[in-house]
Amino acid sequence: MSKTVTVTGAAGAIGYALLFRIASGQLVGPDEKVRLRLLEIEPALKAAEGTAMELVDCAFPLLEAIDITADPNEAFDGANIAMLVGARPRTKGMERADLLEANGAIFQPQGKAINDHAADDIKVLVVGNPANTNALIAMNNAPDVPRERFTAMTRLDQNRAYGQLAAKLAIPLTDIEDLVIWGNHSPTMFPDLFNAKIKGPPSQKAVDAVDDMAWYENEYLPNVGKRGAAIIEARGASSAASAANAAIDHIHDWVLGADGLVSMAVPSGGQYGVPDGLVSSFPVRVSGGDYEIVEGLEVGEFAQSKIDITVNELKEEQAAVKSLGLI
Ligand code: NAX
């Protein structure tokens, strides 16, 4: 058996950091062969071919085939996993409506192509920004695919949240568990220290271990939320290897399972008051190839006020794409 993995934006920076890890077996495990499908726009096909040449030159035993195309129908034909990385970035002076419209032109046809051509067990991860709303667009254009198969990435935010909390508490990040992100993959996201735990004995709530609400609100939240901008400022280019790493984590755990809570932006079923159908990040449990939103977690007044802000932003994006006729 092998899995067909479609990667869009394959010639981009994240694609370059992602494809070699998929082909080496880090995505779906060391026993599963993979067939790669690279989707790019015409002008980037040659660059994608160059990446494919390097993939061949790695002689990965698990890599069965590589196909390159600019046609979404071909790219998603028989796909078991789709990693939608290519998107239209916001350029200077671009209004939000223009950004959403430009991305609609990408994610509408890709959603339709997934609907018509992907394998029955397709799992979709949207990385390209605005990730939650791009996933919403693709999902709404794929009426025959169960909607829970469309997800967006907040795992990089989760990984950043782990790193910064471990640094603050001067503990190994393996001592932290159940630290998840709520809401939108944008600076409004909410990393939840109330449900995160520091391993014991005795186990402690992360917020108690920090014991500094001013740091949580005024440093941690903005520093996690704006980490992407800080990386651009420092490197002169946006996060690529860490984004690819998080995309691997997201799909790996979805397919193979994981302990504890992880963050995935998934269509809401109305949990925690998030409107049905909105693609928002939740605490989820993953096992047996499925995920489930974990209900009944503590959401106090502070957390709720932050979750409201980020969910309201998603509602506005949803209303905007609706008015543009994209969903
Ligand atoms: P690059 O600009 O390096 O690559 C994007 C690639 O997508 C380009 O090769 C382009 O030709 C291709 N592309 C554009 N339209 C396409 C289409 N219709 N079909 C197929 N391919 C298409 O960007 P990169 O640094 O790789 O980032 C990709 C996306 O990830 C961006 O939207 C970025 O904002 C987003 N990110 C999302 C993150 C997340 O946590 N969800 C974090 C990292 C990253 O910022």
UniProtKB/TrEMBL annotation:
Pfam family, one: Ldh_1_C
Enzyme class: oxidoreductase
Spans traversing the lipid bilayer: none
Residues of the active site: H185
An example Gene Ontology molecular-function term: L-malate dehydrogenase (NAD+) activity
Role of this protein: Catalyzes the reversible oxidation of malate to oxaloacetate.
NCBIfam families reported for this sequence: MalateDH-SF1 (TIGR01759), PRK05442.1 (NF003916)
Protein name: Malate dehydrogenase
Organism: Baekduia soli
